[in-house]
Write a structure and sequence with these properties.
By secondary structure, the protein is mainly beta. 15% of the residues lie in helices and 48% in strands.
Length: 234
Amino acid sequence: MSTLLGQVLEAHGGLERWRRHSKVEATIVTGGGLFPLKGLMQDRNPRRMTVWLHEERSSITPFGASDQRTMFTPDRIAIEKLDGALVAERYAPRDSFAGHQMHTPWDPLHRAYFNGEAVWTYLTTPFLVRVEETDAWRDGAEPWRVLRAYFPGWMETHCAVQDFFFGEDMMLRRHDYSVNIAGGLPAAQLTFGYIEADGIRLPSIRRAYARGPDRRPITDMLLVSIDFSEVAFR
């Protein structure tokens, strides 16, 4: 384990504490311009997200109706009733995004997949994958150190290589990636509003912007906003 990664993990609550938990639940409120581009209605209603920490699996409730939820795994996305009755499902869900660009419309299963893989990634950061330190970055007067993460091919996430930026306090400040299911759109996600839940520290506010050719976020192009509250590890 690199020295920087060890410092980052300790600052976020420590690997031993993380391993004692099996899932995390959080209330989320989402927004941003990506969903209207995809032809989807967007609201600010709170929803409850459940993420399994040691397998790629997540669920959000409600979804589409008050008595429905999603169930995401890498090989399947489903919408189901709260009693488990199936509403819709799609196997090999990433394949359904083939040829998609930024304005390609999404159906409810596309959206459910995006919610599942994206928030799973966010709520398991920085504990999840192999990383290496890369070139530092300066944001104003503050130097940020950068960990580059390499995601295995079987894992569903935005893209295979992603960069995570940490301040001098080892807290996550920014997360860069390409949205492969939307034509490879480059994004820079800013993170702040740290909270603590069951000894684990995580940002409660995330704002993803389009990333310009100078690698800086274009702050008048908000793609996705996510606010987390009522976080509990189990």
